[in-house]
Amino acid sequence: MPDDELHDELPEAVAQTGRRVSAIWLVPLVAALIAGLLLWRAFQDRGPLITVTFSTASGIDAGKTTLRYLDVAVGMVEAVRVSDDLSHVVIAARLHRNSEAFRVEGTRFWVERPRLGPEGVSGLSTLVSGAFIGVDPGPEGGKEVESFTGLDQPPLKLRAEKGLSVSVFTRNFGAGLGYGAPVLYEGIKVGRVTGLSIETGEKDVNAQIFIEERYEPFVRENTRFWNASGLHFDASLGGVHANMDSLESVLMGGIAFSTPGAPGPQAKDGTRFSLYRNAASAQRDFRESLGLHVVLEASRLGFLKPGDAVLYRGERVGQVLGHALLEDARKVGLRLQIDPPYAALVRTDSVFWNASGVQAELGLTGFHVHVASVESLLEGSVSFATPDPPGPMAAPGTVFPLHKQVKERWLSWAPRIDLGPASTRVGPGLGRAGAGGVRTPAPESAASASAQGGVPAARSGNPAGAAPVPSPAAVPGKKHLFDGAHHGIK
Amino acid sequence: MSEASPRTTNCLVCGLECRLPMPAPTRLRCARCGAALRFRKPGGLSRSAALLLSAAILYVPANLLPLLHIHVVGHSEADTILVGIEELFLSGMWEVGAVVFFASIVVPMLKIVVLGLLLLGLWRRSPHDPLPRTRWYRLIEGIGRWSMIDVFVVSLMMSLVAFGSIASIEPGAGATCFAAVVVLTILAVRSFEPRDLWDAMEET
């Protein structure tokens, strides 16, 4: 065979000895390493599984909806199912690694959706990105738990948010106070109502209030809160006053506060305050707590009613706080409050008489008409006089008889009683309120100075915004007159 | 290699036809240029098996890890291949879903399984008819590149959907693994020597 011959002539290949493990097996080794590393890393990031129950799963998608704290994703919803009793929705969520803080007892969960409220629009970003579950971690170091109950509404205060939490209670809310209603100070929103509750077994409504950190110093222990909800109409002889704190408070209700007088120590977390019906009643309550309180006994009430003026030489120095029948029903008792600067005018031997309306007196000397003041023509008033020389100062709660008629002799009494410099009283607050006869309060500085033993008050005119009727400035000419008259007394 | 020994072979480098020594040792070199003489594809069974094994290993993270990270206005989503297909079907685009399912699930699985079986048969010297097995080989060789459409889709989406903070798409670790799986299966199929299938026939 020529082939065979040819074959034999061909050079013979060289044999190669030795055997090596093919390097190709490094490839699966490397692949296994990479795959192992990737998977290990992916599963390392997985944190614990928790369950949260919600009333509805609207907007929640398994594998899409994230759990977020301060807009940082801390977990992901893995499954959504209906609870066994079909009453709510149970969401299983996988937290990310190192998120133990979000599974302690007290952690709150809520679904963040776009919300439109009187206070504005919130959660707009969720329109595009879809709903997410907000997380607010419970107190640090709490017990780790696995199942939680979700909130229907976003919490109004995150735990990390710094500020003051106090509560106010009231028997009757004038207007509905909404969850999230604003808390106003001088018309500025400084906080919000974070919760409403009814005390068990009582009729007290408790409103939890959160004050932002920077406004915390405005809340003192002697701060007064009042319901600033909606519109207030105040119709009296002085005219009709409409009062509105903010549009938001009209829609949602609101609470306003102010600190009358000298600011007390700063309020602590958890302090309870009572809530006044409105600004005027908060104001009145404060004013009424000042000065000298005495009681008058009369056989008939006459025209007197709470708020009526107490006059001394025709000058308003106090007011009637209230009246009631005395225990034996034989007399009517009237509670009077004498404004602090004038407390010294009331002595044990002072006489009080009803100066309401026009008093006509027909006697041997002729026909006398007494009019205590123009106001008293329309509204009742009580006048008093103190003999010369004046007796000892009247103690709070002293009982005086209320005379029906004034005696000429009393009007001539003019004892010297030191009231201090007139300038403390003839301030911008001294003016008379409009024809309504509701006297605006004396400036807080003056009031508190005398109430607290002459310590000058740091704050002046603080609750001005709370005054129900704006006080017209004192007429300059009048001031002059007052000064002169006063010097005369001295 | 236990193929029926030819008596001569051509050097693939210099073209010299060499006579083979008898009995033939496992490794030969050209008498003229010294290059290794090859009768079959180098590495043969073990190279193909190693590459296939790597592909099979990487196929696990390729399916478990997200293929894509989609960021749309503050919302981000990471989808694995299977979730993506599920979504395509749920949103009514079942034709597209079917294509993606075929390319990214059926093709790689088919390649891994078929090639694995072929290699297993070789390793155990299966006496089955090599003809259908050769046809299976041709099939997986033909469909191999189709799996690449997934990788192309990811890379295209990534460069097309790049609107900064409004919308962007990033490939996930799954995409890298998946690309590696496709490349490794293609290489494994290429390294496979279909002539080996017929050796058993010649021996009998």
Count of the domains of chain B: 2
Give the biggest sheet of chain B. 3 strands, antiparallel
Poorly predicted sequence stretches spanning 5 or more consecutive residues of chain A: 428-490
Proportion of helical residues of chain A: 10-25%
Number of strands of chain B: 7
Could you state the oligomeric state of the chains shown? heterodimer
Strand order of the largest sheet of chain B: 6-5-7
Structural class of chain A: alpha/beta
| Order of adjacent strands in the largest pleated sheet of chain A | 6-9-3-4-5-2-10
Mean pLDDT of chain B, rounded to whole units? 81
> Helicity level of chain B, as a percent range?
55-70%
Biggest pleated-sheet summary of chain A: 7 strands, mixed
Task: Specify the structural class of chain B.
Answer: alpha+beta
Count of the domains of chain A? 4
What string, H for helix and E for strand, traces the elements of chain B in order?
A: EEEEHEEHHHHEHH
CATH domain class name of the largest domain in chain B: Mainly Alpha
* Amino-to-carboxy terminus distance of chain B: 16 Å
Provide structural commentary.
The complex is a heterodimer of chains A (490) and B (204). In chain A, the strands form 6 sheets. Chain A has a 7-stranded mixed β-sheet. In chain A, strands 11-14-13-12-18-15-19 form a 7-stranded mixed barrel. A 7-stranded mixed beta barrel of chain A has the order 20-23-22-21-27-24-28. Chain A has 4 domains: 44-149, no CATH class; 163-287, no CATH class; 290-412, no CATH class; 422-489, no CATH class. Chain A is rod-shaped. Chain A has 490 residues and is α/β, with parallel strands linked by helices. Chain A is built from 9 helices and 28 strands. The model of chain A is unreliable at 428-490 (pLDDT under 50). Chain B has 204 residues and is α+β, with helices and mostly antiparallel strands. Chain B folds into 2 domains: 1-39, no CATH class; 41-203, Butyryl-CoA Dehydrogenase, subunit A, domain 3 (Up-down Bundle). In chain B, 57% of the residues lie in helices and 13% in strands. Chain B has helices spanning 44-64, 81-90, 94-123, 130-143, 148-160, 173-191, 195-203; strands spanning 8-10, 17-19, 27-29, 36-37, 68-72, 75-79, 167-171. Chain B has a 3-stranded antiparallel β-sheet with strand order 6-5-7. In chain B, helix 1 packs antiparallel against helix 3 (94-123), helix 3 (94-123) crosses helix 4 (130-143) and helix 5 (148-160) runs antiparallel to helix 6 (173-191). The two termini of chain B are 16 Å apart. The mean pLDDT of chain B is 81. The interface between A and B is large, with 31 and 44 residues.
